[in-house]
Amino acid sequence: MRRKHSALSYQPLALSSERSDLTQHSGLSTQHFPLARHWLALANAAVGLFVALSFAAPALMAAGFTGAADLLYDLYAYTCHQWPFRSFFLFGPQPTYSFDTLAGLVGERQTYSLVGSLELGYKMAFCERDLAIYATILLGGLAFGLLRARARPLGFAAYLVLCLPIALDGFTQLFGWRESTWELRLLTGALFGLASVWLIYPRVDRALGFWILDFGFWIEDAGSGPFSIQNPKSKIQNPDVTCALNPTSNLQPPTP
Predict the structure, then answer these.
(1) Which residue in 231, 177, 219 sits closest to 37, CA to CA?
(2) pTM of the predicted model over 0.85
(3) Residue 216: partners with Cβ closer than 8 Å, 6 or more residues away
(4) What is the pLDDT of residues 172-190, one digit of tens each?
(5) Which of 108, 110, 208, 238 is the most buried (most CB within 10 A)?
(6) In the chain, how many domains are there?
(7) Could you tell me the residue range of the domain that residue 150 belongs to?
(8) Residue 163 lies in a domain
């Protein structure tokens, strides 16, 4: 049984010659901030570039472009500790090395700052957990682009629950009680990244004037102009809803 539409779902379609109350209380108008309507594409592109350059650093180092690689490592040092025994290595015999293994090879003092070598390979520009976080944010952002018309923001209580694994894993390492594994760092980082996208991205949509209706449509606040209403489920069955809605239109929502 389909649930009844709430008042919020119906009110945006009950338009008159005046603008709906929905747009009067919506967020930043995309008319005044044209790039706002493309915020998701820009965010995904930025995160994708950030992830890609973390792979580029060891690739450049292995190819002999040490100056460009060092620049990337220096930039990423502002975002991550870059400890090699908690980072993935590329172009070497194995993807990870323990602290004891590296200390035995290069000495304990050099273990924290080691970038790599021809024999070991070269570490990524950020650690294993950061890779999981940002890669999941990228994948979550791409998924949100496909599901945004039906996405509801994650509650803060649920967000805290999903953040508990990364907090427990990270703080128990920090206090020296235990050493985590690369598998746990990937898992906890991925949970944190997914939870962050689920918490933030739907709220950004609403803050920028994109409102989701209960029956599957989403509305963009076009400033002083008409609403733009799109149906992500089917543009063929009801093509009228993909066009800008005239304020005098008598279009009604689907029957419950």
Answers:
(1) 219
(2) no
(3) 149, 150, 231, 232, 233
(4) 998 889 899 999 999 999 9
(5) 208
(6) 3
(7) 129-207
(8) yes
